[in-house]
Amino acid sequence: IYNSLxxxxxxxxxxxxxxxFDDVASYQGPSKEVDDGNKLxxxxxxxxxxxxxxxxxxxxxFQQGFWDLVPAVYISVFDFQQMTLLLSGEPDIDIGNxxxxxxxxxxxxxxxxxxxVRWFWETLETMPAADRAKLLMFVxxxxxxxxxxxxxxxxxPGEPCKFKLSxxxx
Length: 170
Prior knowledge:
By secondary structure, the protein is mainly α. Helices cover 46% and strands 9% of the residues. It has helices at 2-10, 39-51, 56-69, 72-75, 80-88, 95-100, 115-126, 129-140; strands spanning 102-106, 154-156, 159-160, 163-167. It is elongated and about 80 Å long.
């Protein structure tokens, strides 16, 4: 669909294709042919139809279920960015926050400046964000942090779960 709509938007004389507004399920109006003067209106209608109208009943059911669980009065205090943060978690992994919320065990318990610990943090700092997210996923089973960062990680509700670096003798 995307490529077709891009083609419509960048082509002159779209009338020759014989497209009609009637072809869009949500169109309410007299029969009308798509031409260069109204092709952007057609594209807008087509996108709305594809992204919203075609899933309107499913979206309505989801919304009703959501409001049943979380009344609108509680959600209305948040803007969309705050809601995204609450639902999706922290998008960036702050290494300083990670370090401050790490528990050191074994050989590292008394020595946070152990060479291996320093190598770990130095390696983490040089990693691309995507690789940090993969490491986070490996050690915590989540690729994003909850709102509040590492100190908000929980094993179960109300039970904090610190990241642990354990040194083992070999």
